[in-house]
Amino acid sequence: MILEALGSILIGLAVAVAALRWLPRQLPATPLVLSTGPGAALFGALLGHSVLGDGHPTATLTTSLIMAVALLSLLVRRPGRRLHRSAAA
């Protein structure tokens, strides 16, 4: 389980760094991306391990990869679009 957790953190970090290199202007602040990737991957590994049980490290790491990519994709925004804040808020 510890190796799965460390592997998933490394997968999440690799996905976050790749996202920062591939889409630098479409992502928010770098610390947010670099913390979301490993956090999402660790959550995905926990989810995969709890569903599949012991003895499925490849499937658990695949689940962590899918979760990291999915949650990092939620941070992507269109280039040239700014955040509009309401004056009433």
Would you give an account of this structure?
By secondary structure, the protein is an all-alpha fold. The chain is 69% helix and 0% strand. The protein is built from three helices and no strands.
Overall pLDDT level: 90
Radius of gyration: 15 Å
Q: Describe the global form.
A: elongated
Q: Tell how many strands the DSSP assignment holds.
A: 0
Q: What's the total helix number?
A: 3
Largest sheet: none
H and E string: HHH
Quote the beta fraction. under 5%
Q: Stretches where pLDDT falls below 50 for ≥5 residues?
A: none
How far apart are the termini?
45 Å
Helix content: 55-70%
Q: Which structural class matches the secondary elements? A: mainly alpha
Quick overview of this protein structure:
This protein is mainly alpha-helical and 89 residues long. The protein contains 3 helices and no strands.
What are the main properties of this structure?
single chain, elongated, mainly alpha
